Amino acid sequence: MLLKSHTVICKYLLVSRMCAYSDHNNNRTLFNYMIEVKNKIEVAKHPFSIVSVDKYRETTFYNDDTPALQKKEKKRKERKLLKGKKKMTDDAAAAKQKNIDDWLPVTANRNAKWWYSAFHNLTAMVGAGVLSLPYAMSHMGWGAGTVVLILSWIITLFTLWQMVEMHEMVPGVRFDRYHELGQHAFGEKLGLWIVVPQQLVVEVGTCIAYMVTGGKSLKKFHETVCPDCKDIKTSYWIVIFASVNFVLCQCPSFNSISAVSLAAAVMSVAYSTIAWVASIKKGVQPDVDYSLKTKSTANTVFNFMMALGEVAFSYAGHNVVLEIQATMPTTPETPSKKPMWKGVILAYIGVAFCYFPVAFIGYYMYGNTVDDNILITLQHPFWLIAAANMFVIIHVIGGYQIFSMAVFDMIETYLVKQVKLPPCFTLRLVARTVFVALTMIIAICIPFFGSLLGFLGGFAFAPTSYFLPCIIWLKLYKPKRFGLSWMVNWSCIVLGVLLMTLSPIGSLRNIIVTAKDYKFFS
Q1: CATH homologous superfamily for 112-469+501-517?
Q2: Sign of the alpha-carbon dihedral angle for 294, 299, 301, 305
Q3: Where does the pLDDT of residue 98 fall: very low under 50, low under 70, confident under 90, or very high at 90 and above?
Q4: Which residues contact 112 (CB under 8 A, 6 or more apart)?
Q5: Domain boundaries, the chain
Q6: Model pLDDT for residues 492-504, shown as the tens digit of each residue
Q7: pTM (2 d.p.)
C-alpha cells in the first residue's frame, strides 16, 4: 500500500515539475490531472500525499512564475480595454463626422435626380457672359472666333467627363469636392494649395460679378419700363439684388435650391433665345462690317487675348461639378457617374443652344458694331428687352446661389472642423450673411468688376476648367505614353496653359487703358 502511494506521489512530483515549464493553459490541464491524483491518495489515506497535493494547489498558481503570468494577463486585459476604448472613440468620431457631413451643404442630401444635374450644371455654366459672345467674336473674327468657341465647348466637355469619372475612382470613397480630388492626386497639403485658391477666385469672383450684373440688369429694366423716372444709382440696385440673396442663401443644401436653379436654367435659355431671335428679326444691318474692331496691330492682339478670357469665363461650371455630383445617390449597380453624366450631356446641349446662336447670329447681324451686351444693341422692342433683362436677373440669382453654396461649404467646413464651432443655424446664418454682405460691398465699390472677367477667366477659369482635370487624370491613371489618352490630355494642357497665359495679358491691358472711365461707388 505504501509503495503504491509513493508511486502516486512520484507521479505527482513529476507532474509538478512539468508545471514549472508549462504555460498557463497547460497548468490548468495538469491541475485537473492532479485533482485525480489527490483523490487516489486520499483513498490511500496517505497524509503526506494530501499535503503535497495541497502544496501543489498553492504553488501551481502562486509559484515564482505567477507574477510574470499575472503581469502578462494584466497587459493583455489593458490592451483589450484600450482596443475597446479606441473602437468606441473611432465609432464616436465616425458618428460625429457623419453628423457634420449631414449638416454641410454639399453632403447634406444625396437624393438628387439626374435632371438636377442638368439644370445645376446649366445654371453654373451659362452666365450673363453669353450676351457678350458676339462682342468677343468681333475681336477674333469669323475663323478664329468659330474655332475658339467650338474647341472650348469640346475641351470643357471632355474635362468635365474626366471629373465625373474620377468622383468615385477609389472604391468606397467619394471625392465630393474639387479640392478633395486634388488632395488625392497631389497630397493633402499640396493638393489643397493647388485647387482651393483657384476655386475661390472663380467662385467668389463669379459671385461678385453676378452682384454687379444683377444690379445693372435691374437698373436697365427700370429704365426700360419707366424711361421718365428719376435715375437711381447702380449701387442701390445692387443692394436690392443682394437683399434677395440674403434670404435665399439660408437654404441649407444644394438640393434645397433646386427650384431656384431650375428657374435660373430656364431663364438662361429664355434670354439667350430672345437675343438671337430678336437679332434675326431685326435683320442684317446695312453697314455691317466683319473686319476686326481695331486697325492697330497692338490693339488687335491685345483685344484678341481679352476675348479669349471672355470665352473662358463662359465655361466655369467645372468648379462646382463634383459638389453637384456629391448630391447624387450611388450604389455598386448604379454609381453616381451614370445619372450625373446624363444630366451633363443635357446641360451641354443647352449650353450649345445658348452660346452658338447668340455668338454667330449676333455677330452676323451687327458685325463689329455690336456692343459688349447684345441687349443694348437690340434696344427694341422695349417690352422684349425688359423681359430679357428680368430673365437675366432671375438667372444670376440662381447662379449666385450655385457658386456661393460651394463657398459656404468651404467656410462651414473650416469653422466646424478646424475652429471646432458647433454646427448650428446661428453659425450658418452669420457666416453666410457675412459672405453675401462682403460680395455686395465689393460690387458696390467696384461696379466695373465685369471688366475684370477676362482677367479672371484666363487666370483662374482656364486652369480649373481646361487643364487641371487633365493633369489630375495623368497623375492618377498614368495612361500609356504617346497613347491616345496621353496625347489628348497633353493637347488640352498646352491649349489651357496658352489660354491662361494670354488672356490675362489682354484683359489687364484693357483695364489699364479704360481705367480713366471707371468710377468707384457709382
Answers
A1: Amino acid/polyamine transporter I (1.20.1740.10)
A2: negative
A3: confident
A4: 254, 255, 258, 324, 327, 328, 329
A5: 2-63, 112-469+501-517
A6: 999 988 888 888 8
A7: 0.78
